Amino acid sequence: MSPHVDPVVARDHSPRQEQKERTREALVTSALELSQKFGFAQISLRQVANQAGVVPTAFYRHFESMESLGLFLVEQSFSTLRAMIRDAQRDPSVFDNIINASADVLVEAVKEHKAHFAFVSRERLGGTPAVRQAIDHELNLFGSELAIMLGRLPNISNWTIDDVNMVARLFVRNMVSKAEEVVETPDGRTDLEDRIKDAARREMRLIVIGFRDWRS
Amino acid sequence: MSPHVDPVVARDHSPRQEQKERTREALVTSALELSQKFGFAQISLRQVANQAGVVPTAFYRHFESMESLGLFLVEQSFSTLRAMIRDAQRDPSVFDNIINASADVLVEAVKEHKAHFAFVSRERLGGTPAVRQAIDHELNLFGSELAIMLGRLPNISNWTIDDVNMVARLFVRNMVSKAEEVVETPDGRTDLEDRIKDAARREMRLIVIGFRDWRS
DNA sequence: TCTGGATCTACACACGTGTTCACTGAATTC
DNA sequence: GAATTCAGTGAACACGTGTGTAGATCCAGA
After folding, report:
1. In whole angstroms, how far apart are CA B146 and each of B17, B136, B171, B209?
2. How many angstroms separate the CA atoms of A68 and B126, rounded?
């Protein structure tokens, strides 16, 4: 049963693969850092390679082009977001007070993966067409997942699908907007972060309260 | 009283000034068109000059650099927005139903100045630092003006300043978001525009209704 | 009608870019 | 231990870039 195992997968702890993985990560990290300063669309393959301590041509051993690096960054960014929502679904306290919890979760997640969120919020509209489209796709996916999650809540389980979807979209937009704000706050200003959390909570309450009234 | 008049201002209909103004406008238009395709931060001085039918070095007769062109575009974009809000304030029907009116006004304004709004929404986060800062400043200004306008409405004249400012900020963010959506809809799809208008109205009602409940 | 100054042109330079190619040397396989 | 694989190297290329300088063209005011 062993000779048919893919060697790349089977031996991904060999020194060779480890080294490769390390420089690949260096490229990704460098790209994120440079993106934060100048925006991904303005940085060059050579800049990324230099910052990663590698010659430009070595870049091609890991990514076909800058565009494919950009798409990888999109995927990586949203995979952390998906993990976040998956964890939140497991936590029973989230169901008790989804608004307070999601504000906390969001702000903490953004702080922890600041570079990724900065990348997404910046390239969502400012990036190259391929990257923008990828982000748009992921955001729609996230909205759908959120809608399913919301639909399971007892107090809105009798809403129409359209209503749930609209609330989900409003929440996603709110989260995008708040994530942008958190990204732009300097590190260590927990006071500002708390204020953003408060605003997020109030606005989400606004949305659900308004919706309740709207439907009546 | 005549010899001391600034000749540039006094003779701005001379053939010389007319020609200059024409090529300047060509540069601005070209920059907007190219921005819409690739984003302002990715386009070059030479591309703009070529599209305007002018040699690259002639660019410097009109703008010091691409950055100053960018700042000019920001200013120009927001001047149309300011004109919009000024007109709206004069119209008495706006006070009767500010929500319906502002949704219409916004969508129409975006449609009419699509290139400018596309520029702003794209460069707000994706652009160079100088351009981003300029846009941020203008948006804050717009929020303040809107807060003043809202504060004059009879039914919220007894709100606290903080509350009015928060609603104004929510409205601005909503408008930015809706403007982004309108910019991304293809021309002629009035059905989609109407849907955006509806969503904008509903969300603004959401905000004010939620706020009323929130304060009680 | 002439002259000064402006708008614009033509050419040139140094530089950073993406991508190619043959290569090296260490890890991996046989 | 020999052969092979392959991440990373370094030189080279064609190209687009911002900007400097010198000169052409043409309108303005005397």
Report:
1. 37, 15, 9, 18
2. 19
**Do B174 and B200 meet the contact criterion of CB atoms below 8 Å apart?**
yes
CB of A62 lies under 7 Å from some atom of strand D = yes
Separation CA A67–CA A45 (nearest Å): 10
Tell me the HSE value of B171 on the side-chain side, using a 13 A CA sphere. Answer: 26
Give alpha helix (H) positions in chain B. 7-10, 15-38, 45-51, 66-90, 92-96, 98-112, 114-126, 129-151, 161-184, 190-215
Distance from CA of A8 to the nearest CA of B (A): 38
3-state secondary structure of A43: coil
Residue A16: Cβ-neighbour burial (10 angstroms; 0-12, 13-18, 19+)? exposed
The answer to whether A57 CB sits below 7 Å from nucleic acid chain C is yes
Would you give the DSSP letter of residue B188? T
Query: Amino acid identity of A68?
Result: S
Among residues B163, B145, B177, the alpha carbon closest in space to that of B207 is found at B163
Give residue-wise pLDDT tens across range A109-167: 899 999 999 999 999 999 999 999 999 999 999 999 989 988 888 878 888 888 888 88
Quick one: B1 exposed, middle or buried, by C-beta within 10 A (0-12, 13-18, 19+)?
exposed
CA distance A122 to chain B (A): 5
How many Å apart are CA B106 and CA B115, to the nearest integer?
14
- Taking the whole predicted model, whether its pTM rises above 0.90 is answered as no
> CA-CA distance, B171 to B163, in Å (whole number)?
12
Residue A206 has pLDDT above 60, yes or no: yes
In angstroms, the first-to-last Cα distance of chain B is: 64
